[in-house]
Amino acid sequence: xxxxxxxxxxxxxxxxxxxxxxxxxxxxxxxxxxxxxxxxxxxxxxxxxxxxxxxxxxxxxxxxxxxxxxxxxxxxxxxxxxxxxxxxxxxxxxxxxxxxxxxxxxxxxxxxxxxxxxxxxxxxxxxxxxxxxxxxxxxxxxxxxxxxxxxxxxxxxxxxxxxxxxxxxxxxxxxxxxxxxxxxxxxxxxxxxxxxxxxxxxxxxxxxxxxxxxxxxxxxxxxxxxxxxxxxxxxxxxxxxxxxxxxxxxxxxxxxxxxxxxxxxxxxxxxxxxxxxxxxxxxxxxxxxxxxxxxxxxxxxxxxxxxxxxxxxx
Length: 314
Ligand SMILES: [Fe+2]
Description:
Layout: H1 3-8, H2 17-24, E1 27-30, E2 37-40, H3 50-63, E3 65-68, H4 75-83, E4 107-110, E5 113-114, E6 117-118, E7 127-130, E8 142-149, E9 158-162, H5 163-169, H6 172-178, E10 182-185, E11 214-216, E12 218-220, E13 227-229, E14 235-236, E15 239-240, E16 242-244, H7 249-264, E17 269-272, E18 279-283, E19 287-291, E20 301-307
Parallel strand pairs: 2-3
Antiparallel strand pairs: 1-2, 3-18, 4-20, 5-6, 7-19, 8-18, 8-20, 9-17, 9-19, 10-11, 10-16, 12-13, 14-15
Helix pairs in contact: 2-3
The protein binds fe (ii) ion (FE2).
Fe (ii) ion binds next to loops.
């Protein structure tokens, strides 16, 4: 679906969320006061009607993360539904199944080995709070996960945190101080510290000339017009992942550590404990996420899509 077609589907701003949900025949039930809502009454295998799309879109914008339970989706279903919100990125080669060339939009997230080879990526290590691909010029607006196999002991939850609320909770002096600052994001290292293909290890002694996109530290969501703290990631392995432009390294490190403390408090977070059949879509423009530890002896298999944005963070 093109952006023009998507604009044509934007709900009338005078229509209330309750009316939009009623038109689609769905119930939207918040899962916490801070973030997340479950949408009931949807089967994502069905044709995605304009009314259903408007309801999912509204719930997603209002609650930042949506959950739809008991969905039994083929990869084609998952791709078709995700495309209702924009063009899809292709998964990296290490996240694609050998026989999945017909569905390059699917990323497999799994710890499972077959014949000694991983069937997906992100193995079984815990992942710290981060925003997907904030180290690119135009990061994806949404990521989605469909749970196919989950550890039966309930481990391997995914945490989500509302970055509008984290920004709003900062002391006024700090909020004013960061209002127009910009961050450079390190694209050279992955979350676990590995040097990415095509990059040299960068020491970031000279921030201004190092590679990497520059994004505002406080961004304005292009659809809701609300402002959110946009940190990206804190560390890539043992290396700093972001730097404040126009500051010394010491000043930048100190300010970012201070801001990350507000994330570490997890006051506006929700940890989703997965059930098989869960479908979750989150908004990367106002949400960070993480993965808790899980029992590596248990299988965890998720299929994931990633929806492109059309505008840079601003
Ligand atoms: Fe992620």
